[in-house]
């Protein structure tokens, strides 16, 4: 594909070389550059891609996309495509490869998304793309929608927190919403492999960093908004967080929103799509009622009605009903038969989301991804409604996150659990003891009992040994993850497997 074709939908300046340069691939990392690549320079929080232009050239890059501030002067406009008059770099006397074509844009992240969409021939036009955004419930809702559509006979791709799936092909996810180039590549593979639908989680960071630009979303779903992802490396406040979430509903044709959430109006105030509401508490276009929690031989589930029709979901709690109703609303929009929806919901299992680990010790052991105060409170309050003899929870907090978030989680655990085991999660470049001490500050605001143990495996052994018949034990925070991130290393840590090994030792 020639370079000019990649910028048909975004203004660009030709600084050096030719618009007719042949492009065989696109890369945002210099190490991924091959012959005739377009290397896109991204300014990150820790590194600046502009400093790797020479390396990209040595690897065979034919062209490079830079931000306009990289040049001290640009020139007159000729439609979307401009010609620069000066080649001086904003970094000073940086020697640029003379054989490389250089193009500048205002925002390379935004341009990367549209260039990738063009390079992969706008694959979202060949699919029904369904985007789910919100603080919690994205993953479960995504799996529910995917499973229902598959049950109805539609081949469906998935991009989410746990993995990226195209039919039987699966790849473990590196982030909730992949980089723009990766998204477009996956969508093209879905379209080429015969997928009719693509269901994807759309994070606020994905929207903020333009990863989801260039995608024609058919349906967008808003689940809820809570005080998460607020911090120096994410969003400065709730207003900014809500703003970026709301952008999905300026990109889709049909929007589905949880009207019970306090931020519903803020999310949809500037929506350009048709809007449908759902609720478990008030009048809405799709309304759940008569919610009943069930526990049959240690298998938790929930019965409910939607506009008078009976449903059941194989997951506990009101939050599971919200996820299910969102999925029902999406699938009804596509005319999926009600009986197909009903059967699919009964058997859905989402890895690391209220996942039951079988044992012979008489207690109920769950693994859940709850890693913020909102989700931790929800699962603890839900499990309390099943009247356990004692409710236990084990969790830690990730490094590089807000201290307030850690204290809040400690406070929630102290209020709603009978006993808490504070341990390590993904400390990253922080000392886990320091993170745990901040959690303890929140715990001390309550009367909750707790134990602190840095080694997560030993903490698990302690809790699983102390549990008694009739108790509910929750391993929170890791969910589907199979590693611990410590000082830049990803160390294997499969909580499900470790729990099973500990249980075998205890028997």
- Strand percentage lies at 15-25%
> Which blocks of ≥5 consecutive residues have pLDDT under 50?
72-93
Distance between the termini: 63 Å
Quickly count the helices.
Answer: 14
Main beta-sheet strand count, sense and barrel state: 11 strands, mixed
Helix content: 25-40%
Computed Rg = 25 Å
Question: What number is the mean pLDDT?
Answer: 91
Structural class: alpha/beta
Q: How many β-strand stretches?
A: 25
* Tertiary shape: globular
**Biggest sheet: strand arrangement:** 10-9-8-11-7-12-13-14-15-16-17
Please give a structural write-up.
- This protein has helices spanning about 55-60, 110-120, 140-150, 180-190, 205-210, 240-245, 265-270, 320-335, 340-345, 375-385, 405-415, 430-445, 455-465, 495-505; strands at about 10-15, 25, 35-40, 65, 80-85, 100-105, 130-135, 155-160, 165, 170, 195-200, 215-220, 250-260, 275-280, 285-295, 300-305, 310-315, 355, 365-370, 390-395, 420, 450, 470-475, 485, 490.
- With about 500 residues, it is an alpha/beta fold.
- The protein has an eleven-stranded mixed beta sheet with strand order 10-9-8-11-7-12-13-14-15-16-17, sandwiched between helices. Strands 2-3-4-6-1-5 form a six-stranded mixed beta sheet.
- Helix 11 (about 405-415) links the parallel strand 20 (about 390-395) and strand 21.
- Helix 3 (about 140-150) packs across helix 9.
- Residues about 70-95 have low confidence and may be disordered.
């Amino acid at each position: 594909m020639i370079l000019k074709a990649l910028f048909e939908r975004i203004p660009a300046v030709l600084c050096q070389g030719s618009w007719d340069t042949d492009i065989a691939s696109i890369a945002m990392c210099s190490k991924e550059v091959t012959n005739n690549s377009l290397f896109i320079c991204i300014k990150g929080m820790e590194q600046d891609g502009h400093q790797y232009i020479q390396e990209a050239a040595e690897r065979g890059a034919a062209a490079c996309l830079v931000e306009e501030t990289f040049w001290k002067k640009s020139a007159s406009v000729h439609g979307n495509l401009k010609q620069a008059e000066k080649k001086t770099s904003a970094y000073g006397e940086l020697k640029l490869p003379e054989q490389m074509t250089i193009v500048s844009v205002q925002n390379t992240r935004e341009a990367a998304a549209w260039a990738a969409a063009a390079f992969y021939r706008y694959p979202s036009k060949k699919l029904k793309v369904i985007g789910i955004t919100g603080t919690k419930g994205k993953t479960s809702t995504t799996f529910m929608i995917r499973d229902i559509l598959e049950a109805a006979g539609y081949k469906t791709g998935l991009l989410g927190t746990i993995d990226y799936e195209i039919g039987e092909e699966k790849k473990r996810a590196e982030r909730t919403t992949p980089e723009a180039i990766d998204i477009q590549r996956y969508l093209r593979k879905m379209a080429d492999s015969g997928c009719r639908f693509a269901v994807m989680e759309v994070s606020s960071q994905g929207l903020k960093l333009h990863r989801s630009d260039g995608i024609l979303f058919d349906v967008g779903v808003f689940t809820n908004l809570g005080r998460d992802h607020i911090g120096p490396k994410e969003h400065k406040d709730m207003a900014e967080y809500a703003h970026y979430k709301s952008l999905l509903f300026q990109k889709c044709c049909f929007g589905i929103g949880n009207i019970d959430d306090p931020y519903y109006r803020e999310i949809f105030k500037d929506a350009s799509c048709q809007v449908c509401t759902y609720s478990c508490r008030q009048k809405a276009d799709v309304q759940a009622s008569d919610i009943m929690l069930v526990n049959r031989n240690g298998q938790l589930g929930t019965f409910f009605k939607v506009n008078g029709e009976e449903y059941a979901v194989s997951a506990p709690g009101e939050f599971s009903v919200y996820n299910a109703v969102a999925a029902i609303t999406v699938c009804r929009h596509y005319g999926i038969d009600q009986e197909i929806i009903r059967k699919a919901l009964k058997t859905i299992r989402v890895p690391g989301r209220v996942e039951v680990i079988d044992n012979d010790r008489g207690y109920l052991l769950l693994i859940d991804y709850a890693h913020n105060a909102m989700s931790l409170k929800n699962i603890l309050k839900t499990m309390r409604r099943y009247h356990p003899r004692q409710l236990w929870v084990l969790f830690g907090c990730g490094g590089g996150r807000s201290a307030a978030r850690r204290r809040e989680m400690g406070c929630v655990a102290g209020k709603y659990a009978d006993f808490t085991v504070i341990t390590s999660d993904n400390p990253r470049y922080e000392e886990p003891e320091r993170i745990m001490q901040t959690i303890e500050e929140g715990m001390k605001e309550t009367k909750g009992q707790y134990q602190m143990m840095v080694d997560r495996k030993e903490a698990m052994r302690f809790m699983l040994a102390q549990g008694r018949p009739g108790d509910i034990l929750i391993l929170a925070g890791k969910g589907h993850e199979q590693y611990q991130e410590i000082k830049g290393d990803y160390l294997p840590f499969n909580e499900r497997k470790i729990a099973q090994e500990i249980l075998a030792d205890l028997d």
